Amino acid sequence: MLPPDVVRPSARVIQEHATALVIASSPETFSAAHIALTAAITGVLALAVAIWRLPRSAWPDMAPVAVPSAASVYLWRPSANMTQLNRDGLPGFSANDWAASVLAYIFVSLYADARNLAEPRRYAQTWALATLASPALNVITI
Predict the structure, then answer these.
(1) Residue 63 and residue 105 in contact, taking contact as beta carbons nearer than 8 Å
(2) Is residue 137 a contact partner of residue 96, using CB atoms and an 8 Å limit?
(3) Which of 1, 28, 37, 112 has the least C-beta neighbours within 10 A?
(4) What pLDDT sits at residue 95?
(5) Rounded to whole angstroms, how far apart are CA atoms 40 and 36?
């Protein structure tokens, strides 16, 4: 024999399932394609900044600015794609907008710490601009 709440669910059980359904289909979460597109745009913009700021001889240092910037968005956004984190705490800015850029900063800094850079000042400028571009792109595209 089935328990009574399976045969005839209580109002609480119905409410829990309805809430789960609403959260799963909320417009405040984003598709994998949307997140991938945002990550790609972030990487392209970071690469453009690197090409602009770094000397042509520093080509090995250009991709390590673009790839971690894109990866930070691509890794952070799906793992934190929750309604609560996507709601704007400040008008226009959610917790996820800020957190993706912090992750970009950390990823690029790990590379800078591991490598003997030919032009540390220009790399730091590139790093800063790529980090600033991340929240801007997250706000604009997501």
Answers:
(1) no
(2) no
(3) 1
(4) 76
(5) 6
